[in-house]
Amino acid sequence: MATTCYVTDNAMLKHWNPLKRWMPERPKRLQVAHQLLQTKGLLDRALILESRYATDEELGLVHTKDHIELIRATEKMSLEEVTLENHRLDPVTTICQETNQCARLACGCLLQAVDAVVSGKCRNGVALIRPPGHHSAADTVSGFCIFNNAAVAARYAMQRYGLKRILIFDWDVHHGNGTQDIFYDSNSVLYISLHRYSKEKIFPKTEISDATYVGRGDGRGYNINIPWTKPAITDADYLTAMYQLVMPVASEFDPELVIVSAGFDSAKGDILGDCCVTPAGYQHMTSLLKNLAHGRVIIQLEGGYNVDVVAESLAACMATLMGDPCDSVTNMQPSASAMQSIARAKAAVSPYWKCLTEEPTPIVVEPERDIETWQIPVLSCPHGKMISSLPSQGLSADLRNLDNVNKWICLTCFQVLEGEIKSDALVEHTVKNHHFLVANTHTLHVRCLSCRQGVIHKEFIPILAQLHKEA
């Protein structure tokens, strides 16, 4: 099985109106990113997929017939006519005679990645596409978006492959109001968005981007907004949100596929976002997401308007999908405003998720025993699904004579680690790789280094049996 698939098409460069040259969503975004992926050798390591166009039936999984026909009609208009129609529909969004074909191609490319990943042809994927999609609702053009690529991909995966639970994770600096609207009543799609928020200044300039909008009906709790109310949001802020809210809830949801609405306008240097996320920050978020859905993660481009920053950030994410180590994040101190935003989001959705409402496990301590070592194990933790399957050839680590109580084996990569549970070796392994679960090679006691507690989970049993056999 290939690790990572990749899909794009130069035909998407034709989505461009020369009468609106000021638009930041321009063809060069794809050109520069594709060239950098090639220069870094990432495309040589990827499974390259053929592009295709989304059909009316596929677009109709999300969009109304009127919306599909409206976009199709622009193909036959003159440049002046299509520009006037563009202004009527949404002055911010580019529409030209080629838009219908380019938008269908963007969506179809993402569906190709879904096919490759869900069918098992590869583990994960990258779709370098435009125009973006997350502002488009069922019947609207909005914010550079024509068709909602991520939403169509989610519905397509459900219809064709019978998937029941899909996570759409949106780190674009702008709220994906279209995606929220499409799945607001659904408990099959968990939509989580981290975005800047101001009803007066930040697009889409609407109250529904706030944390209190959590879904409706069956979808209550399945729409999670983490609204940053201040600029200059950093890696530390995003990763704190990942650890405290995104990953616990996503792990409890247990998705079968993760679609990332990867807008790199939250990156440091973007001309619109006014945030400070680095390529390393995106790498660490990607690495965490790989712990979900058995690693079935698809990154598809949304926003991002500094073409060099988009290219570097996407390349970093693709390298991480391929298994390359993450670069270091230099400062992990979140801001006070970010912590407030995360707290508001947690409070809004905590009634709907056990991982946010369960009381801490009581601790029983024997005399003169370390309090960290002798906690009563819990039956599950938010990271319980992050274990790997046993390698078919068995464990490569030599577990003989590992009777030292300070030796552990990582249940994700099966590396043997030595030291007390709080030692630098274990902490460094956790921070660098986002591997939280370790088993003591002497006692077979499983610990979660993130939750700081012992864990008993039925999925651990085959691995613990193998550890016992090989030790």
TrEMBL record:
Residues 1-76 form the MTTase N-terminal domain. GO terms for cellular component: histone deacetylase complex. It catalyses: N(6)-acetyl-L-lysyl-[histone] + H2O = L-lysyl-[histone] + acetate. Coiled coil: none annotated. Its EC number is 3.5.1.98. Belongs to the histone deacetylase family. HD type 2 subfamily. This is histone deacetylase. It comes from Rhipicephalus pulchellus (Yellow backed tick).
